[in-house]
Write a structure and sequence with these properties.
- The chain has 21 helices and 6 strands.
- 67% of the residues lie in helices and 2% in strands.
- A hairpin with a 2-residue loop joins strand 1 and strand 2.
- The chain has a two-stranded antiparallel ribbon. The protein has a two-stranded antiparallel sheet with strand order 3-6. The chain has a two-stranded antiparallel ribbon with strand order 4-5.
- It has 2 domains: 271 residues, Orthogonal Bundle (ABC transporter involved in vitamin B12 uptake, BtuC); 123 residues, no CATH class.
- With 514 residues, it is an all-alpha fold.
Length: 514
Amino acid sequence: MLDDSDQRPPATGEEAPPRIGADEWVAQEATRRRGQTGIGGRIAAVWESIPLTKRFGLVLLLLIFAPVVTGSQPFLDLIGLSNDAFILRIGARFLIFAMLAIGLNVVVGYAGLLDLGYVAFFGIAGYLYAYLSSDFIIIGSMKGIHLPTLVSLPLIVLATASVGRLLGLVSLRLSGDYLAIVTLGFGQVFVQLALTATRVRVPWRTRPIDLTRGPNGINRLDEVSLFGFTFETTLQYYYLFLALLVLIFVAVRHLNYSRIGRAWHSIRDDELAAEAMGTPTNRMKLLAFTVGAAIAAVAGVVDAAWQGNVVPVPRYSVLTLINLYAMVVLGGIGSLSGVVIGAFIFTVLPELLRSITLAGFLFYGAGLIGLLALLRPLRRFAVLLAATVAGGLVVKGLVLLIAPGLDIGGSGSGSFLNRLVQSWLVIPESAKSIGNVVVVLAVLTLLTTILVRHRERLFLPLLALSLYLSAFAWETRLALEPAATRIVIVGTTLVVLMIVRPQGLLGKAEVRVT
């Protein structure tokens, strides 16, 4: 029998004894979250105090009213657009990729299967829809099949899911790199067939038949029609995609917290142990391939109808697969909400960088927010910012004093913020060619700063230098070439995130007891 003194709380500074039968890491999770300080900690505390269903409701309301806000004239004037068609297309594209990322997360994040042929299911569904809902197939006097969407969609989802299950059957004995090679080959075979299956000979015909129309793809596909309503505009498709995304999100979330989800997680963590505990690993793997392919099929059908065509490259190529994996890794492998956020970042951020004005606010705003989250307490942020500004002014003054002709000033393009920064920098006449070198130096300096972030004497000076180099690279080079800017910023963001937070934005860090 235990004495009451054995249950007393530990004194101040005394370490609490471990409790028998309790997971201390899980029990201390709330304490660790409460220990977060700064602006990020306060925001996280307020957000986590909101019930989960209300959080999802707030995000859903934001997505519902996003077209209204972004279509308003003040917002369009701010980003320099005459209409909201471009923004709507970005939003619809984000919803498509969010559905695909959720499907890929089922296979990779939940079941731990490295499927590099996932985008082929997206393409198979698109081509099946083109066969069933266009003038492509001519049967006798009937030009095209033109099945109703309520008939073609279930058929295509079932057929694509069956292909996913067949791929799973072939790959049951494989894992890791070997599974990745086989599935990558499957994806490449599909793309090559879509590009070259234009003169296929069949026994019952004397002339070859065209199955894909090659690189040009199949055009003039039917619009989606549900319950008598035909979707025609991008805004209508946006809300259709949003409704499908919500249904897929809810279904996969319930699946994740079911016995099937727990079986997937056990296979991902240790397949041998899961099989020893009675988990039907082969059946669960096949189910993961099937569910992932079915989700990709839904996205492939509605995307093909929205675009009005199916084109093998680049829509179903390796580039799309790389983007999908980047979304899943950035958001956090295994995190349902994380992969949606990753899809949002990878579809919206590159397009926002097309506008110099909006990209400038985004670039400097994200930099300041990152510094606020990184530098604690707040006085460290203030000291660093003041030192960086003062250092730039000193460099500017010395250049004007010693070599007045060296600084020719900025281009004057962009917003007031861009012009203000340009007046702070020393910009020589050959700024464009120098900017190429400074871009590389800025990236290397930033990565070096992150690596030495625990050494205060090196960290702050290198961080101030990286800020100045980043501002120079932005104003003289990156802002002038949006295509290169998107690649550099997205790539640098991924590298920095993988160093600082390798589990992704919302992923859970792996904890090992040694």
